[in-house]
């Protein structure tokens, strides 16, 4: 496994991967090096078929303060083409996270500003502390949440995106849940216990079924019906029913026993 400087990747024996933003001294702000490491780590995770799902977290007090100020200062001195290359690498992180073939769960504490909201929105699910603080802060420094905008809009809706990206208002975890950015929010001192419960729940599910389900939902998108989509869904369930994991799951259900991907009960 690759050794990283600004992020960390932990892969547990049970197949749970945790991708950490690991610059707590900089509030996990990201720069060009962080972005490149995230691209590499996501490729590493995708290539590892033993990983069942991934958690995205930030070390220390904050999830991520967004873009590193020193990096932003350097970017201001670059020409259009150099800035375009930076933007393309950030867009690659977001796209690769969004389409990662395994389930992804972001866990948010402290601040999540700017591009950090893109990382959260690109995950399939997110939970956070009720006192976490969110902000699409780009307009305050003369910019816009350009690269992350498609993903955040998918998460919170067009109307809310217009409000929070144009006003740069801050909002807490309770509001983030109301908007749909978080699936659930918890008291800060209960967040880890809640995460343990989420992890336990996901570990009960068939690993290949979750991959197939995510691929299915990527294909379904907003759910617009078409003959091609109907054929895709018919094929998807047929493949799952006839697969080894599908057969094991059905037989275990009928026999009222645990399927072989679950750890035996103590």
Structure characterization notes:
The mean pLDDT is 94. This protein has two domains: 7-202, 2-enoyl-CoA Hydratase, Chain A, domain 1; 206-255, no CATH class. The protein is built from eleven helices and nine strands. The protein has helices spanning 32-47, 69-76, 80-98, 115-122, 149-156, 158-167, 173-179, 191-203, 207-220, 227-242, 244-255, and strands at residues 7-11, 16-21, 53-58, 104-108, 111-113, 125-129, 133-135, 170-172, 184-186. Strands 1-2-3-4-6-9 form a six-stranded mixed beta sheet, with helices on both faces. A three-stranded mixed beta sheet has the order 5-7-8. Helix 4 (115-122) crosses helix 5. Helix content is 49%, strand content 15%. By secondary structure, the chain is α/β, with parallel strands linked by helices. Strand 2, helix 1 (32-47) and strand 3 (53-58) form a beta-alpha-beta unit.
N-end to C-end Cα span: 32 Å
- The number of domains is 2
Tell me the radius of gyration.
20 Å
Q: What characteristic shape results from the CA principal axes?
A: globular
């Amino acid at each position: 496994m690759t050794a990283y400087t600004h992020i960390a990747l932990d892969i547990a024996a049970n197949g749970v991967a945790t991708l950490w933003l690991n610059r707590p001294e900089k509030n996990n702000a990201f720069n060009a090096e962080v972005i490149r490491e995230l691209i590499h780590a996501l490729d590493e995770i995708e290539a590892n078929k033993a990983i069942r799902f991934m958690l995205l977290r930030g070390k220390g007090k904050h999830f991520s303060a967004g873009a590193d100020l020193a990096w932003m200062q350097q970017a201001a001195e670059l020409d259009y083409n150099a800035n375009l290359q930076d933007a393309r690498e950030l867009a690659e992180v977001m796209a690769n996270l969004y389409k990662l073939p395994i389930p992804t769960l972001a866990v948010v504490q402290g601040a999540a500003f700017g591009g950090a909201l893109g990382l959260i929105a690109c995950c399939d699910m997110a939970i956070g502390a009720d006192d976490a603080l969110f902000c699409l802060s780009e307009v305050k420094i003369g910019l816009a949440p350009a690269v992350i905008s498609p993903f955040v809009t998918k998460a919170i809706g067009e109307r809310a995106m217009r409000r929070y990206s144009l006003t740069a208002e801050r909002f807490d975890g309770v509001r983030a849940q109301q908007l749909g950015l978080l699936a659930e929010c918890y008291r800060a001192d209960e967040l880890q216990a809640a995460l343990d419960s989420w992890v336990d729940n996901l570990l009960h599910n068939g690993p290949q079924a979750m991959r197939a389900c995510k691929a299915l939902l990527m294909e379904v998108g907003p759910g617009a019906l078409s003959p091609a989509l109907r054929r895709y869904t018919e094929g998807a369930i047929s493949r799952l029913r006839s697969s080894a994991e599908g057969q094991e799951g059905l037989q275990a259900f009928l026999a009222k026993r645990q399927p072989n991907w679950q750890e035996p009960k103590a």
